[in-house]
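ok trying this again, last paste got cut off
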Amino acid sequence: MPMNIQLKMKGVTLVELIVVIAITSIIAAVVAVFIRRPVEGYADAARRASLTDEADTAMRRMARDLRLALPNSVRVYGGGQFVEFIETSGGGRYRAEPDSGGGGDTLDFSAADTTFDVIGPVPALAAGNHIVVYNLFNTGTVSNAYHGGNRAVFTGLAAPTITVAPVVTLPFPEPSPAKRFHVVTGPVTYGCVGGQLLRYWGYAYSQEAPGGAVPPAGGSSAVLAGNVGECQFVYTAGALTERIGTVSIILQINSVSAGGGLERVRMFQQAQVSNAP
């Protein structure tokens, strides 16, 4: 075989291969420098958006529930780590006077009356619901639905008449000036425990709030947010004539970035609650 043909069939040398690898590495390093920041920025933005969405969803859920709180039932304890309230599912007005024909089942506050007519639409009622009339306080034994003196268990409905089971001699000690009653489903608590924001429900009523930063015993719970770095509830009842209370919520969620740094999303929201019993 001629020498020139042998030269044309010669392969790539080791030196040429090393040079190609070196040049490719240099180009890759240069390209990585230019695309690193945009990629890190995208990852950071996505992480912050996820944190914000988690915090915002939790805040909206709490605000929505608090707007359904029974008047004057909101109470904060545990140094502001927990907020408790009694959740309502509806309400209406009870008959306080007979109709024009002298009929109708009125709610008598001077005797152990367990039935009354509803004026207007009858609210949705279910087994386990309670009827509360004229709730004024969230502690003590007077006009406090947690205690139970103004709360009775719903037992039957033959529209427009509601039947309740008496829990005390007089189921409803004080009449409502607006002739209003509320249907409640039970107490609910939001609290921060172990770096998590949780919702508690289905537990028993307690006349007084727990003495320390402890969640209610029994019932069910669900996690609304994790990696909670700060959680604070502040309740302002407002003036007696205003009948509007405000729950201020501070929620901070932490996350560790790819570089090992700590990122925080801190949100503040206020929820107004009606305190007109």
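PB: full thing came through this time. Residues 54-274 form one domain.
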